[in-house]
Amino acid sequence: MKIAIDAMGGDHAPEAIVKGASLAVDHYHDLELTLFGNREQINSYLDKHPRIHIHHTTEKVENTDEPSRVVRKKKDASMVLMAEAVKNEEADACISAGNTGALMSTGLFKVGRIKGIDRPALSPTLPTTDGKGFLLLDVGANVETKPNHLLQYAVMGSIYVENVRNINNPRVGLLNVGTEDQKGSDTVKEAFQLLQQAPINFVGNVEARDLLEGVADVVVTDGFSGNIALKSIEGTALTLFSIIKQSFMKNMKTKLAAAMVKSDLKGVKDQLDYSEYGGAGLFGLRAPVIKAHGSSNERAIFNAIKQTYHLVEADVVSLIEKEVKALQEREA
């Protein structure tokens, strides 16, 4: 299996990417990785390995770059050439922790959409209290969606969760302002009807407050609401641990208490760390494209590579293609 990686994307590039790649090739003996980026910078962190290759690039995509112009203006950027390798079938999938908008644009124009998928969805797996996690899609690839797009998200998410995360007959929920069947906008109401008729385990409307309790294995929504939900969860977790840390640092008594529960608190923090589940998949493209978090450390990059490995191994793209074709035939 061959995976292309943007070694220059992310807050800790290229060090975190290179070290995460090294962990991955030690873990998977049939895995070959090509790191796209500045050869000199990559080599400063890389112990020579026969299954890690370097493709030297002279440019990289910055966070300030306009996503829609990256493919045309930065043809030699590490992210663009990484996606080009997938397009040319030199790699089975690709990963970047760089500019999210640029990766979505590059993936769309270079890798291309699956026939029958109107819009791809950006889809991270987020933590739940039972440790299983849930897939949320879309979280920003498309601000506005039609009912049929939400149906496609549900089908793609269900296939991914069942075949990569090994959850049998995954529960699919529609994010809404209430659990009653008739709640929400006209778009959401129409999507509800489509999801009821789809070949998935649709459990109805779900509310944001129940997401981390594991109310569903797959939750679908438009990119605007999904991004707000994602950022709210991220912000709440960070604020919560900041408050706890401040409370434990107040005086000597609380500091002693902190020392006693330090390992337990670390366990809770790790349970809420969504990077343990890998990156966000850009589902609906002709090959797996994974967006790792911008602040990814080497462990998070390793998990993103693991996720990508299992996506390719399970041939999720082909499964989505078959299901989308079957949906179209039923509608015809």
TrEMBL record:
Domain of life: Bacteria
Primary location recorded for the protein, binned into one broad class: cytoplasm
EC number: 2.3.1.274
Known partners and oligomeric status: Homodimer. Probably interacts with PlsY.
Known function: Catalyzes the reversible formation of acyl-phosphate (acyl-PO(4)) from acyl-[acyl-carrier-protein] (acyl-ACP). This enzyme utilizes acyl-ACP as fatty acyl donor, but not acyl-CoA.
PANTHER family, alphabetized: FATTY ACID/PHOSPHOLIPID SYNTHESIS PROTEIN PLSX, PHOSPHATE ACYLTRANSFERASE
Protein name: Phosphate acyltransferase
Organism: Tenuibacillus multivorans
